[in-house]
Amino acid sequence: MSRVKNEVGGCEKCPATIRWIQMLKKDGKLGAVAPLDFLPSAKGNITIEDHPQHGRIGRVLTGDDLAKAHALAMPLHINHFATCPKAEHFRR
Ligand SMILES: [Zn+2]
């Protein structure tokens, strides 16, 4: 499976549409490219933003940031690891 960031594709193991997003870690460094569910989720905790240096990145929100995002009804995405019925496929 290609893991090109920003690429929209299908999960190999279930019918879900996912998008590969470059994650930004809390320390400001780039993390892994993660498969996010294409559509926002009420259970989501990842905001997709345009970063001045890195372009489109995903950032995990926690605590107050997450509460604020929910209060503002921001579209939040969820890692497909969390929703895929075949999630064991992703674990190594
Ligand atoms: Zn899946």
Summarize the structure in words:
14% of the residues lie in helices and 34% in strands. The chain is an alpha+beta fold and 92 residues long. The chain has one domain (8-90). A hairpin with a 6-residue loop joins strand 1 and strand 2 (17-24). The model has no long low-confidence stretch (mean pLDDT 91). The structure holds zinc ion. Zinc ion (ZN) binds next to loops.
Task: Record keyword descriptors for this entry.
alpha+beta; 92 residues; 2 helices; 5-stranded mixed beta sheet; binds zinc ion; 5 strands; single chain
Summed up, what is this model?
It is built from 2 helices and 5 strands; from the N terminus they run βββββαα. The chain is α+β, with helices and mostly antiparallel strands and 92 residues long.
SSE order and pairing:
Layout: E1 8-10, E2 17-24, E3 30-37, E4 46-51, E5 55-60, H1 63-71, H2 80-83
Parallel strand pairs: 2-5
Antiparallel strand pairs: 1-2, 2-3, 4-5
This protein binds zinc ion (ZN).
